[in-house]
Amino acid sequence: MNTYTFGPFSLFPDRFVLACDGASQQLTPRLLAVLQYLIRNRDRVVTKEELINDVWNGSFIEEGIVARTVSTLRALLGDVAESPKYIQTVSRVGYRFIHPVNIQYDDSSLLAGKSDIATRNCKHRFVGRHEEISAFNQRLAKCEQGAGSILCFSGPSGIGKTALGETLLSQAEGRAMVARGRCAPGLSVTESYAPFIDAFTDLFNSSADAELRQRLKEVAPVWSSQAALALGQGADNSGAAGDPTNSPARQFVAAVTEVSRKQPLILFIDDFHWADTASVHLVGFLSLRLAQLRLLLVTTVRCTELLRSAHPFAQLSHELELKGTCHRVRLDALSVEEVAEYVDLAAPSPPDAKESVAHCFYRHSEGNPFFMISAIRYFKSTGALSEIDGKWCVEPGLSDTALKIPPNVEKLLLYSLEQLDLEDQYLLKVACLQGVEFDSATVSEVSGVSITEVEERLRACARVHEVIRHLGDSELNAVASVQHYRFVHTVFWKALQDSIVPSRRTALGSKIAELRRRNAHQTA
Ligand SMILES: Nc1ncnc2c1ncn2[C@@H]1O[C@H](COP(=O)(O)OP(=O)(O)OP(=O)(O)O)[C@@H](O)[C@H]1O
Ligand SMILES: [Mg+2]
User: H-helix or E-strand containing 64?
Assistant: First the structure.
């Protein structure tokens, strides 16, 4: 599918994503359809009637819905109706998209295989993840044969869960019907089934099969009227003949059964660590029927969030894993080679500089894609990564020792630090003055906190919060051992160091130096 760029925005219709300056917003199918229609017809004024006919398929819609949809689009674009940059209202006629648009045409039809992974990866600059892609393909093949399952991609923020999910969905195009939903923080308190309502709406709306839509209305009246409301069509009771006493969960399963009779279905629910309890129960309910459904449910979770909030999906996914219904795949950092591959696509450098540029971005990201992309953008903006004749080079200092942390990455790291309680924060500040790697005995001595408490806290920082990693233990004496840890990212260690006020850094630093002197003396 083509990609459209206008001003700071990029519209990725195949992913329902509107991106701006590194942040992306998920569009509902209707918002996307209207925006895409206006962009495609930007050489003229599009009338309201035309939008109703072509986007709402001529169905009866509530008065004012077109205007409300356009106004939501304007809010997303930061546009103002009175002095528009993007969408102009032509009084009593309709709307016109007035900003110049750059289109990147999808040239996949010109290339060998349509489902050629390398081609797609290159086009979207998506690198690596071959094992995960193969795990997905195995599940999808089983799903096509009638055995559904749940695939859960887990990992910390920025590791690439959403990007992987979207890449897989675009690869599965044509093989299965696809519907997306996502969870948002806070939504779980106010709305039950929120991600599944989105997914059902997506499914309902994207199905061109009128017979299937009618069956969905019959077997899942509650969900169909929610979908109609979400699409701004008002509640639709034409399928109310279905048994309304059926619980929403049963209706959902009935709807999925209808779809899966016709073709395999992939439901992608992003950020499930924020799912409401009803949605978690729905997954539990769906899992009981998976063996007879052509359904592949793909979810993404941040384990840290699951554990921190004692989220019910932590236990459910564990139980489903034991039963073999759910397969959890943990995303690790990208390898040096994968970072180099990405850097070569995003900022190709002259042959003799390739290695140092790739090395620089590996050091700044340690394979976390979000850090990698942020560093490339940040260095481009500061001039530390500069272009000469279409080739990019980094300033010499960056390749060697200096670590410069982009402000958005620093914010994210400090946010994860703030999630820890004050005592843990203090221990990690003491720890970071030892270096990227540190040991529990020194932290205990310098902080004055007992070794047992330090070890318990560090263990939780590693297991639950994932800010440090356990490297192993060594013997302190005949009865005690020392635990060794490493900060998960050098940039995290650096951000932590920078967050310590100078007077405390000096005081703690001299205690550590004194301790090292004593230890060296004793060893000698
Ligand atoms: N394999 C990859 N190749 C290229 N770019 C990637 C890859 N994985 C992720 N990215 C990019 O890295 C950034 C972060 O990825 P993404 O948003 O998918 O992370 P996430 O794990 O979903 O994080 P969060 O838990 O915060 O939602 C995005 O800009 C994404 O496009
Ligand atoms: Mg994500």
Answer: none
202 Cα: distance to centroid of ligand 2 (angstroms)? 19
- Does the residue 303 lie in any domain? yes
Q: Which residues line ligand 1 (CB under 6 A)?
A: 125-129, 155, 157-163, 302, 342, 369-370, 373
Among the bound ligands, the one closest to the CA of 164: 1
Using one digit for the tens of pLDDT, what is the confidence trace for 289-314? 998 899 999 999 998 889 888 899 99
**Amino acid residing at 191:** E
Ligand 2: centre distance to CA 408 (Å) = 16
SS3 state at 320: helix
Same domain as 169, residue 96: no
For ligand 1, atom 5: residue with the closest CA: 126
pLDDT of residue 478: 65
pLDDT tens track for 162-199: 999 989 988 888 889 998 888 877 666 667 888 898 88
Give the DSSP per-residue string, 441-458.
HHHHHHHT--HHHHHHHH
> How confident is the model over 75-104, as pLDDT tens digits?
999 998 888 899 988 877 889 998 888 877
Same domain membership, residue 134 and residue 278:
yes
Q: What residue numbers bound the domain in which 61 lies?
A: 3-104
Ligand 1: nearest atom to the Cα of 129: 1
State whether 308 and 390 are in the same domain.
no
- What residues contact residue 500 under an 8 Å CB cut-off, 6+ apart? 429, 432, 433, 508
CA of 303 to the centre of ligand 1 (A): 16
Counting ligand 1 atoms within 8 A of each CB, the residue from 122, 162, 331, 415 with the most, and so the one to mutate, is: 162
d(CA 153, CA 310): 18
Structure-block tokens of residue 355: 């290695």
10 and 138, same domain (yes or no): no
